Amino acid sequence: MLKLKRYREVIFTSILDFLIVLASWFVFHSFYPNTMNILIQDFNLDFISGGIIISFYWLAIFVVMGSYKKLYLVSRLDEFIKVLKASVLGALILYFIININESISISEQRMIIITYWATIFVLLALNRFIVRTIQKYYAQRGKGLHRTVIIGTGQTAKAAYDDLNRNKILGMQVLGFIQVNGKAPDPETGITEEDVIGNLDQIKEILEERQVQDILVALEPDRRQDLVDVISKVDAPEISLKLLPDFYQLVSGLSKTNQIFGMPLVEISPEPMPLWEKTIKRAFDIIVSAVVLLLTFPFLILIGLAVRLTSPGPAIYRQRRVGRNGKIFTIYKFRTMLDNAEKHSGPTWAKKDDPRVTKLGYWLRKLRVDEVPQFINVLKGDMSLVGPRPERPHFVEQFSKQIPLYTRRLRVRPGITGWAQVKWKYDASLDDVKEKTKFDLFYIENASLRMDAKILINTMITVIKGKGQ
C-alpha cells in the first residue's frame, strides 16, 4: 500500500509526460512534415508508431535524469530546471541521430532540433507548472497530505507540530508523537498523553498500521545522544526521514538542509547515486562479470578439480547471505575450508592462520581467487562488483542489535569488494565489524562511479600483491 502511494505521483506524472511528448510530435510535424517523414522512414516506421517510440525514448531520458524523484510538492523552479536538463540532453542525442541522415543539410538539422526541443520543453514545463500549482492548492486546503509522525515529545516537537498545522503547504498531516525516552510528555509543552501514539520500540508496528509516509525527527538539543538510536530504528527505505536541525547545526554548515517553505529540514537520503549512475553501474557489473566468467572458465574448471582432489567435499561452497533490503540469497565461492567446518561450532568468524583452511584454500584466499564464482551472483543481480560484503542471517540479526545503523548496509546491493574491504582487515571481533560498518556507511552515503572505480583499483592492487587472507 505504501509503495503504491509512493509511486502514484510517478505513474501519474509519467503518463502525462508521455501524452505531452506524443502531442509535441504531432505539433512539430505540422511545422516539418517532410523532414519527420524522412527520419521515421529510415527506421521503417509509420508516423503513429514513430511518435509512440520517440515518446518512450523521452520517458527513458526523464527516468535516467531523475525527473521522477521527489515529486511531492517540489518547487516549481526546481521542476523547471529538471525539465530543462532532461530536454537538453534528449535533444542533443536526437541531434546526433539526425546527423546520420545525409539528405538533410546541417543548418536544417540545427533548426529542426532547436524547434523540436523548444516544443518539448515549453509544453512539458507548462504541464509540470500547472500540475504542481494544483497540488499546492489542494495541500493548502489540507488535501492529499503525507501521513506523518513526529519523533519527540518536547518543545521542539510541539513547535514543529504547530508549524505544520499552520502551514499545510508543507504537505504533512501529523498523526501523533513518538516517545523516545519512555517518559510521559511534560504538560508545559502542550502535548498530552492522548497525542502520543507509541514509543520508539513500537515504531515498526506504528509505521505499518498507520501507513506513515514521512517521519519528522524533532529532538531536544540535550537529547542528541538519542539520534543514532532513532535513525537506526526507523530504517524504512520507502518512508521519507527528515530531521529538524537546531540552530547550531544550521549555522555550523555541517548539515545540508532543504528549505521547504520556511522550515529547514535535513533529509536523510541513503542513495545519493543518481539513476543514470546506477544504470551504468549495473551495466558495468553485467559486462565485467560475463567477460570474467567466459575468459576464466577453463581455469575455473581446473581450480574446481584441484579443490576436489586436495580435500574431500564439494568444489563450490554455497551459503545463505542477506542481500539488498534483507533478501536472502545463495552465495557461491570456491571451498577453502574443510568440509562442514562449522558443523560442531556453528557460525564463527574466520581468523588469521585459521586451522580450518586447507593448503590450497590458503592460496585461493591469498589471491582472492575463491571469490570468482561470485561473479555468477553479480550476473543474477544478487550482488554488485562494489558494495558492502554480504553477511549471514545469523550475524545480521546479531549485529543489528549490537551496532547502531548496521541495517542501513542493506539499502544497497552487497559487493564482491567494498570500501571496508580495502580499508580494513578481515573480521576477527565485534570491534572489527563496528569499524567496517563505519566504512560501509560512508560508502552508502557517498556512493558514486568515481568511488567504485577507486575501490576496484585498490582491490586489484591487493590481488596483485597477494594481500588477501
UniProtKB/TrEMBL annotation:
What taxonomic ancestry is recorded?
Bacteria, Pseudomonadati, Balneolota, Balneolia, Balneolales
The terms describing its cellular component in GO are: membrane
The record's annotation in Pfam families points to: Bac_transf, CoA_binding_3
Q: Which NCBIfam families match?
A: EPS_sugtrans (TIGR03025)
Q: Which UniProt keywords apply?
A: Membrane, Transferase, Transmembrane, Transmembrane helix
Give the family from UniProt: Belongs to the bacterial sugar transferase family.
Q: Which organism is it from?
A: Gracilimonas sediminicola
Q: What is its main location?
A: membrane
Domain of life the protein comes from: Bacteria
Span-the-membrane segments of this chain are 7-27, 47-68, 80-98, 110-131, 283-307
Q: What is this protein called?
A: Sugar transferase
Location comes to:
Membrane
Q: Name one GO molecular function term.
A: phosphotransferase activity, for other substituted phosphate groups
> Membrane topology type, per the record?
Multi-pass membrane protein
Q: Does the keyword S-adenosyl-L-methionine apply?
A: no
Instruction: Domain (Bacterial sugar transferase): give its ranges.
Output: 281-465
